[in-house]
Fold this protein.
Amino acid sequence: MKTLTSTITYNQKEHSNATTAEIKHFYDEATDDYTFWSKDYNMHFGYYSMRRSNPFYRDTMLNEMNRQVLLRLQLSNDKQTLGDLGCGMGGTMRFLMKQLPLLYTLGVTLSDFQLQEGNKLLKGSKGVIVKENYENTSFKSNSLDGAVAMESFCHSGHSYTTLKEAYRILKPGKRLVITDAFLKKDPSLLCLGSKMSYEGLCKKWSLDGLGVIHQVEKNLKEIGFSSVVVEDISLKVAPSVLHVPFAIPLFLIKQFFKNKKVREQSWNNLIASFYSLTAGLHRNAFGYYIITAEK
């Protein structure tokens, strides 16, 4: 991934950038863990809704997050094209196409494994995954009717370059919806505990860093988005986060009894899962947000 552009005036992070190769390796190695996380291949946290989801069944919350994103996209029932910028195995793409049968979806990933296996899951649908960097796609300007980035832009540190590319490929009047964890303050202002959680998350999950929420909002407006809405949904996401310390160890135990080799990234996921919990305890430093930006 590219480093942040000079227009960002704060120190985004104090650790090394996650390279394209590291991010690719992360997803090539980690996808088996995520299939255990979600039978629908949703590679993100969930949204708890009392009427629509069950806190004891992860996929109800994970798919509710997909539904919340769909609501904010405000897509019509006509033929339209949506880009999933960091699409994983295409779980969100399949959900959206189920809700809108005329929708075409284009997923972007750096992972060869996700490219091959994700396209198998999309076979027969109006969706396809391509191997590209979402910071610099081959999509035409003003070509997409919507774009989503679900816990993917963190791999580029929510960089100005990433946000600008999303703006370029969207049609005027269309929306970008981001769901992700963000910092509430500059990394240099983090206390010792929150700093350790932050650095642990970035290292084990190959993140380039988390954007500082007020700066990301400012960058979106500076790039040209006419309307930017920032929602703190940390409490809605918390029930799904609480599944992490149970899901990954259980996956590792099952791998052990199946005599399967546990990959290095699986161990990293286990460690990172506990950092995600400790980060959640530092509410003054971290938050989980949905950002809706209209071009």
Remarks:
- DSSP finds ten helices and seven strands in the chain.
- The two ends are 24 Å apart (CA to CA).
